Amino acid sequence: MRLSTVILPVYPWRTGREVWRRAEALGLHAAYTYDHLTWQSFRGRPWFGTVPTLASAAAATETIRLGTMVATPNFRHPVPFAKELMTLDELSGGRFTFGVGAGGDGFDATVLGGEPWPARERADRFGEFTRLMDELLTRDETTSDGSHYSAFEAVMLPGSTQRPRMPFHIAATGPRGMRLAVELGQGWVTTGATQDGPKVVGEQIERLRAACAAAGREFDGLERTLLNMPRGEAEQPLRSFDAFVDWAGRYKELGVTELIVHWPVPDSLFAADEKLFERIATEGLAHVDG
User: In the chain, N or C: fewer CB atoms in 10 Å?
Assistant: First the structure.
């Protein structure tokens, strides 16, 4: 099992540079950031762009993996976005992971002036978006005429630094999304549940296992990632060191291979004791294994 973090894009870079470097120094497996234009309680507060933030993080670090957790089709088109991700993979020396999900119906879904997509259309777009991203990032040139996204002689040179392309980690809990994760993903992502988190995630993992079997894919070859979302009193692994060890141990038993916790942000939903966070980052998994 590996431990990673999400660093929200809320820092001016003179401060943010040290946050990303500190995440690397703590030995965390990866540092991701959200791909949103703003997010819930952070509306009205500083919130910087995802791609420039990750490009700066790539230049400021050397070993930690970087990525989106997660990008969505809400305000993205595959052709320019694939070019940006190809560049991030090169800037990071092949340390980039593309986390992608269907997205929701919040601010990102309406900021361009349209109405939020119905659930079926959102799922359709998610599949088409992700499959076209796969084509773009594995081919020198792509032409594709889709229902929602098209590309005409889109050149992608020199291609991903990682071959055949950077890993895709696909966030999905429904059957269509899980099949997509099995088809194209090197990893699968869940945020768990407000109530009975381990029970819900255990059931999701069994459905993922069944989807792998139906597709003839090795289940153990697919990373299983849990992104912890603070939800009131439910599951607060950063409340204490023992709380983290207990939380991580339960999900390790279920077959989760990567845990993600948020870097502490004072005066927010993600507030946490920074010293405790650093102890968890450096010692937490060793106690789970022990």
Answer: C
Task: Say if residue 165 is exposed, middle or buried (CB neighbours under 10 Å; 0-12, 13-18, 19+).
Answer: buried
Query: What is the per-residue pLDDT across 128-176, written as a single tens digit (0 to 9) for each?
Result: 999 999 999 999 999 999 999 999 999 999 999 999 999 999 999 999 9
- The encoded tokens of residue 165 equal 């392309």
Q: What is the secondary structure of 207-248 as a DSSP string?
A: HHHHHHHHHT--GGGSEEEEE---BTTB--TTS-HHHHHHHH
Provide the CA 103 distance to its chain's centre, in angstroms: 12
Q: Give Cα separations from 39 to 45, 267, 269, 286 (angstroms).
A: 10, 15, 11, 33
Number of neighbouring beta carbons within 10 Å of residue 84: 15
pTM for this predicted structure = 0.96
Round to whole Å and give the CA distance between 119 and 211. 21
Lookup: tokens for 85: 């991700």
DSSP 3-state assignment of 70? strand
| CB-count exposure of residue 152 (10 Å: 0-12, 13-18, 19+) | exposed
How far is it, in rounded angstroms, from Cα 98 to Cα 91?
14
How many whole angstroms separate alpha carbon 104 and alpha carbon 199? 24
Residue ranges for the chain with pLDDT beneath 50: none
> How many CB atoms are closer than 10 A to CB 238?
21
- Look at phi and psi of residue 235 and say left if phi exceeds 0, alpha if psi is from -120 to 50, else beta: left
Token pair for 249: 């141990």
Asked if residue 158 has a cis previous peptide bond (ω within 30° of 0), the answer is: yes
Reduce the DSSP state of residue 52 to 3 states and report it: helix
Long-range contacts of residues 162-165, Cβ cutoff 8 Å, at least 24 apart: 162/89, 162/94, 162/96, 164/138, 165/134, 165/137, 165/138
